């Protein structure tokens, strides 16, 4: 079944039970049962099988009673306490946020943020260097990231290496707002005040280095960690307007840990004011970084579901104004259904099939696959794929990322055109690449190898990525029963079969094939005194000939070229 087909959409919305919403995640079928609030898009956390719905309670998370330090962490913390004692600073050193959360979950974390109760991070780093100098040790460079309230960066952060590990230092904060202003006035705060200004309760925990104890100053951080809840310490709308990026952080952590989003949090995240603040107040670079962490994480589909369910899709993935053809309503849900299907088949094929970078771009490519034929006109004017705009302008990711996703979309279309005859012994009759050439006489049995080889030379080592993505657009025969599961298995089967054919043809590294004759030899046959476009034309023609004759030698290639030239000369004479 084609993901873009009406029958697929019908399947996704075919099960409706009262006003409840259900979805079925991971490698299992996903059913979208709309409710009034979500307008047809699923919420998470409810599973249904064969039409029978059952609430699935998330298991309580195993949370440790204490934090066990690694040898390096112990060395770092002792060094910091030595600085405090040496200068009699009376400073409480607290590790804040994610490090505490991850250590309580028994996970490794190398992101150490130190919160200081009576001095700026930059000032403490200078004290560290003074201490190192007095001890006869090498001083370290200090990096300072200035505050930028307009971009919701309210605190100055200092960074330096301690025991070969980067450590960030920042002061505890309290804040107040002037009337009619969303920019806070910052001042030193207590640890409790700072904890309540954090994005989430599970990130508001402190590890007090001085007392070697965990501090849960909101009174619910540890419990929310155990229960698997994503909650803000203060009212969520207030928290999100303070820094709208926190909406995406809540989504990312909810997806990463498979935690449930608090209902009040979801309502605030869907608020028009919060959505507008996310679009206007937060830099696209910061938004892109959060999305990249989601896509590269362990639950990218769940994160995209949340973004769509909370009506944030177009705030995150902004679109150009003049896109053609016009983007239809529901495109956001179609994009999420494609990344879901892509994720399901990837789990069956095995994530180890791809590198981390290939997996990341595969998911971006799948997410924007419904937009592959949509373009906009820039100021030049030049038509540019909308996927390129989203990656480069909406997310501010690398130009190479955008170019690769667009290349994958092009390769997907070409793979689809190859599918009908890749698994058959017949001569390909429909091909986007024209092999007709008066100098080439490629036998029908070799055309499959030439066409596939030319495609692989375009997409290079990402050919398996493009192949797997192309199975998402391959129509699948109607399947009864657990159809979405079986569709994923069928797409895996298509991928495996075509991959085997390509490798059996010896094309796995086709992009590394070089012309058997260099430019000088070609010039000799053509009796040319200089280079030019004709040399390039013959090199491309030679690659096709070599793909058709993989075991040919340079001498045989020279003979073919000389014979081709001789035939051309005779034809010119008769003409």
UniProtKB/TrEMBL annotation:
One of its GO terms (molecular function) is CC tRNA cytidylyltransferase activity. Residues 93-230 form the Poly A polymerase head domain. This is tRNA nucleotidyltransferase (CCA-adding enzyme). The keyword RNA-binding applies. Pfam families: PolyA_pol (PF01743). It comes from the Eukaryota. Keywords: RNA-binding, Transferase. One of its GO terms (biological process) is tRNA 3'-terminal CCA addition. One of its GO terms (cellular component) is mitochondrion. Transmembrane segments: none annotated. Signal peptide: none annotated. CDD domains: NT_ClassII-CCAase. Belongs to the tRNA nucleotidyltransferase/poly(A) polymerase family.
